[in-house]
Amino acid sequence: MILIITIVSFLLNNVVSNIISPFNSLLIPLFYFVIIFILYPFFKTNNKYYIYSFIVGLAIDLVYTNTLILNALVFLILSILIKNIYKAFNINFITTLIFIVILIIIYRVIIYFILVLTNYFSFNLVFLLRGIYSSILINIFYSTIIYLIVNKKN
Amino acid sequence: MYRKRKKRRYLITILSSIIIISGLLVFIFMKDNRKLFFIEDVTKSASTFINKMFYYPINYIKSNMKDYKDKKDLEDNYKKVKEKLQLAEEKNLIVSELENEIKSLKELLEIKNVMTDFSLVNATVISRNIGYWYNTFIIDKGYKDNISVGDAVVVKAGLIGEVINVSYNSSTIKMITGESSNNLSVKINTGDDYVYGLLTKYNIDTQEFIIDGISSNKEISIDSLVTTTGYGNNYPAGILIGKVVGIDSDNYGLKRYIRVKSDVIFDDLNYVSVLKKEVKE
User: Which of A37, B68, B130, B141 could form a disulfide with B145 if both were Cys (CB 3.0 to 4.6 A apart)?
Assistant: First the structure.
């Protein structure tokens, strides 16, 4: 189940990112990121979940970017945060969507600031905000689908 | 108490070491033109192959729809082309004359390596990067097709970027619309002469490039063609960037900025060509 959802999310992300314009669009996919949050309850131990998050991040680095281990580390950090979210809150459909929005913001901000700090580009708040709001709509939609599928299976 | 403190200190040391090492690794791996590790090469090649298979039916539909639209446009263009054909034939004669002239001048100057000698490798865009911060995309041609880092990537409307990473059957292209990929040496055709400058910025909202560091005070007219100079970067000379759409100056009127618009639709790139450097002896 985990493997299938992960592979499908990767492939879908690839197709959607290729079809939809990345500049003017409000639909930038982060499907592989969304599943990290939704699939947490499927892991029996936290260590397995951390390893899974790290591998997904590493796969993104290897397949999509040249920034090796950047996403792997960020995913690992966020997986610790996700574990604590599940521990502290009662997660249902609404809270899932809310936390996905929050996590997308955190993910975007962390990656953006690391890229700025490493001189990949200079700081531009509009650019950062656009990166955040353009990723929300389609990922909320995808989260809804995955959440429903996963819950139906359960 | 002492043991607890010692344990905490031990934990802090380990955590800070991990953070420092991770930070260093990220900093090292952030370089665009670094050589790919073997594992990266293999993963990129394998994922390109899988993505290509998965993307094939979608690409097929997409290109068919485009073909239909192109067919419609073709009829309109046919009439225009017919008129231009006559003019082109005349120009062809001049071009062949000029080619002979260049050849004889090369021989005269004993120039052996010329940057403007290049060949095209056509490629399909396999995937675009997450978000638009990286401004990169991946094509389905790699070092098996003799593509190397630094090769310019074009479409028929002009330059779009350069190759920053090459694996066996895929390459990563950084677009010129990215912030860090700019500072490209360009020249503006003023009719009888060129004005040189640096392509420094790209405005996503207006979709215009900004040329800074203009070399002279010569009059530059709107619609002048902007091309690469072939200096500095690995780009060959004469690749079209776009047309001048506006000229601005700073508050003191001392510095000029040229606004350039490219005909390339950066949002819709499906097929591209890589200008492979071919140093001819």
Answer: B141
DSSP 8-state symbol, B234 = S
Q: Is B32 on the interface with A (CB under 8 A)?
A: yes
Residue in chain A nearest B33 by alpha carbon: A66
B51, B131, B179 ranked by CB distance to A122: nearest: B179
Alpha-carbon B201 to chain mean position:
14
pLDDT in tens, B227-248: 888 777 667 788 888 889 988 8
Predicted ipTM beyond 0.85:
no
Residues of B whose CB is below 8 A from A29? 130
Average pLDDT on A78-94 reads 91
Residue ranges, chain B, pLDDT below 50: 113, 115, 281
B266 to A118: CB separation less than 8 angstroms, yes or no? no
Assign 3-class secondary structure to B56-71: HHHHHHHHHHHHHHHH
The nearest CA of chain A is from the CA of B158 a distance in Å of 19
**DSSP helix/strand/coil, B21:** helix
Indicate whether A147 pLDDT > 70: yes
Is the Cβ pair B58, A19 closer than 8 Å? yes
HSE-CB at B81 with a 13 A cutoff on CA atoms is 6
